[in-house]
């Protein structure tokens, strides 16, 4: 099913918007796009608030009904991936001035604890506190150490979907990243983040079978800083 890349409503030929030449536009609905222009000059947040009033329509096809507030939460994670909003919400690799990039780097490098989440066999999220990343590649890839035979590793092997969260309680800042977690057991990966003193946890050293590496690659996220929440996606 295709969705309007502005408001998220399902698209079919009867509700397609129109281009400047009168032809049908395949990306947007007629309520958002007409004659080659957007009907509403609004922000993503204003569009979400507008769409949230149709929660009863959304609930018609759901076995479990949700409130307007819950629906807004869903839209806040869905809308950043729509074409109209994606461009200004995208964190570009070569933009070193971006406030989100700076905040991710600051939290990842300075906080002692990171919270990571996995999905268990019954579909429930499971969260635990971990020592912060041993290494990161930019702001998308993070490496953690853990036990090969842990429950967390079993979860990620069955379902790689994951979430990590950085929380600065003193600064009242939080950063959630969603993505996928890989379990790495090759020697090169293990040596890459091994540190002196790790034999306290892994007596056999870097080749200890109970020592492995978790590699998290982010897809999108949401942060809260200076009383300002914002969703974003990665280039």
What does this structure look like?
With 235 residues, the protein is an alpha+beta fold. It has helices at residues 44-51, 55-59, 68-78, 83-89, 99-110, 151-158, 187-193; strands spanning 16-18, 24-29, 33-34, 37-38, 90-91, 113-119, 125-131, 135-137, 141-147, 161-168, 173-184, 211-225, 228-234. Strands 5, 6, 7, 8, 9, 10, 11, 12 and 13 form a nine-stranded mixed β-sheet that branches. A two-stranded antiparallel ribbon has the order 1-2. A two-stranded antiparallel ribbon has the order 3-4. The longest helix has 12 residues, at 99-110. The chain is elongated, with a radius of gyration of 21 Å. The mean pLDDT is 92.
Secondary structure elements and pairings:
Layout: E1 16-18, E2 24-29, E3 33-34, E4 37-38, H1 44-51, H2 55-59, H3 68-78, H4 83-89, E5 90-91, H5 99-110, E6 113-119, E7 125-131, E8 135-137, E9 141-147, H6 151-158, E10 161-168, E11 173-184, H7 187-193, E12 211-225, E13 228-234
Parallel strand pairs: 5-13
Antiparallel strand pairs: 1-2, 3-4, 6-7, 6-10, 8-9, 9-12, 10-11, 11-12, 12-13
Question: What would the keywords be for this entry?
Answer:
13 strands; two-stranded antiparallel sheet; nine-stranded mixed β-sheet; alpha+beta; 235 residues; single chain
